[in-house]
Design brief:
The complex is a heterodimer. Helix content of chain A is about 0%, strand content about 45%. Chain A is built from no helices and eleven strands. In chain A, strands 2, 4, 5, 6, 9, 10 and 11 form a seven-stranded mixed sheet that branches. A four-stranded antiparallel sheet of chain A has the order 1-3-8-7, with no helix packed on it. In chain A, strand 5 (about 45-50) and strand 6 form a beta hairpin. Chain A is globular and about 45 Å long. By secondary structure, chain B is mainly β. Helices cover about 0% and strands about 55% of the residues of chain B. Classes of the chains: A mainly beta, B mainly beta. The interface of A and B includes residues 41, 101, 102 and 104 of A.
Chain lengths: ~120, ~110
């Protein structure tokens, strides 16, 4: 596709349920990031993949959160036993990687708005 | 560690008047800085980025930003505001620790008055 896509766009779930959020990055982009954005705040880093390797998961809030990118393309962020405080916009971004990664633009998907009741 | 501070959470300007959105950064190294815009119910879009090639950076839709090392600032400006500029603006620094993850400011909501 032309850009980063995420699904579902909206997810309403009950407390205690597991949810899986999907990100489909721009084709050929080796770097993939997950961020979480609370209402009225800037996005905060969750985790980073370089190809299929999860190289940084320092932003994951606790062990209920996990992510994978098994074939170096599509990624899934899973939240187990959801809690109301998990409600937020979850954004995925991809970038090309390579030598000048420091200056690489990250392209963001539209986000998944998660509401936990 | 790197960080950015956006000094104003809300800015209101009249249509046709200049826009100034302020951002200060903290970095031990020469930073990579970005401005993104987020329109309601839409994704984040890159306005411009600083890559050390030039201190005055021009972006899309008439926006520009000037990197001032002495002031550790990267303020976003536009000579004449348009109604369509109403949105939330984020100043971002790229973390050089290896992942180049983004560190976002808290955002500035721009309101344009007719």
């Amino acid at each position: 596709g032309a850009g980063v896509s995420q699904s579902p766009r909206y997810k309403v779930t009950k407390r205690g349920q597991d949810v899986a959020l999907r990100c489909d990055p721009i084709s050929g982009h080796v770097s993939l990031y997950w961020y979480r954005q609370a209402l009225g705040q800037g996005p905060e880093f969750l985790t980073y993949f370089n190809y299929e390797a999860q190289q940084d998961k320092s932003g994951l809030p606790n062990d209920r959160f996990s992510a994978e990118r098994p074939e170096g393309s599509i990624s899934t962020l899973t939240i187990q036993r959801t809690e109301q405080r998990d409600s937020a916009m979850y954004r995925c971004a991809s970038s090309a990687g390579g030598r000048d990664r420091m200056y690489n633009e990250q392209f963001f998907g539209p986000g998944t708005r998660l509401t936990v009741l | 560690a790197q960080s950015v501070t956006q000094l104003d959470s809300h800015v209101s300007v009249s249509e046709g008047t200049p826009v100034l959105l302020r951002c200060n950064y903290s970095s031990s190294y020469s930073p990579s800085l970005f401005w993104y815009v987020q329109h309601p119910n839409k994704g984040l879009q890159l306005l411009l980025k600083y890559t050390s090639a030039a201190t005055l950076v021009k972006g899309i839709n008439g926006f520009e930003a000037e990197f001032k090392k002495s002031e550790t600032s990267f303020h976003l400006t536009k000579p004449s505001a348009h109604m369509s500029d109403a949105a939330e603006y984020f100043c971002v620094v790229s973390d050089i620790s290896g992942t180049y993850k983004y560190i976002f400011g808290t955002g500035t909501r721009l309101k344009v008055l007719a």
